[in-house]
Structure formats: C-alpha cells, structure tokens
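It is worth pausing here to work through a concrete case rather than discussing structure prediction in the abstract. The textbook approach is simple: state the sequence, then state the predicted structure, then interpret. We follow exactly that order.
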Amino acid sequence: MGKVVMYSSVSVDGFVADGNDQPGPLFDWLSNGDVPLDESGVVRVSQTSHDYTRSYWDQIGVTLVGRHVFDITDGWDGKPPGGIDHVVVVTHRPAPEGWDPEAPFHFVAGVAAAVAKAQELAGDRIVEVAAGDVGGQVLAAGLVDEVRMDVVPVVFGSGKRYFGSVDAQHLLADPDVVIQGDRVLHLHYRVRR
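Step two, the predicted structure:
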C-alpha cells in the first residue's frame, strides 16, 4: 500500500488560509518561475521547485480532502486537480445534487474509512491528504506516514491552521528533505510512530 502524506503550502506561522479562508500569497511560488510544472504552462516554478514537486506529484494516486475544500473549489468541476486519478471527500453529506456519478470522486463518512478507501484506490501510489482540519484528524488517528509542506515567507497571524485543531503532541523525524526554491522552502518529515 502507498504512503499517506499530509501536504499543503503553509505560512511561516502555520496557516494554510487566512482569516477569510483565502490562500493569499501561499501559491505565489507556483507562478514566479520559468519552468512549467504541468502541461497547462500556467503553473511555472524555479527549476529546483520543479524537480522536487514534479517527482512528488507523479507519485500521487488519490487526494483526500474535506467537504469544505470540495465545496469552495466547486469540486474542481468533477475533474481531479493536477491529473490525480481520484479524490476522496470526507463528509457526512451525499454528493451535491446533479453531481456526475461518473466523476472520480468518492464521498466517505469518517477519516478512517476515507483513508481506507483512498488506499484501496491508490494501490502502491501516494494518498495525499490536504492539510487543515481533515489532515489534522488523519494525523491524530495515526494514519499519516509523512508530512510535506511548502513554507512560504508570509505571516498570516490567524486563519486556518496547517494541522487543524490537533491538540496533542505528535513527533516527527528530523526533516529528510530541505530544499530552497524561489520564495518557498520545501520540507519533508516522516511521522514517528
């Protein structure tokens, strides 16, 4: 089975969105380089960020998000972001009315069941868990293998926390990847068990 990786861009003070639920400059690093990160050519990063991010993206089989992220993105119009094969949405609500049943989205109640479904779909590929409330719940349940963060040089002061409402200590190993890109620091930690 593939690894479960919690991931997001994050402010230096640990937020994935500001107080208005907006990412602000957290994704600016995805448009300030010369190297296309995907086929669209819209996402352009430094060569260093490309080499790190592209190899990670190519390993992702499933992205797991909460219903809030699904709703604010309008479910990416039924097309998983970044060429991912499937999206698992943690929710107690059914798919939105009129949702295309052929879209590769799976609505699952509870984080343990959602991770199990995502791992089934991903096979030996990575299950990427969006940081924030659901990511924090998956971490608290002991289901996260690695934490990846793209730390952006901005301080929000308040907003949506990277680890959500986690209120217990969780030990991570020393970072085994520390890569400086252009206006971003890529970090990778294994979760200690």
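Step three, interpretation. Residues 4-190 form a domain with the Dihydrofolate Reductase, subunit A fold (CATH 3.40.430.10). Residues 111-122 form the longest helix (12 residues).
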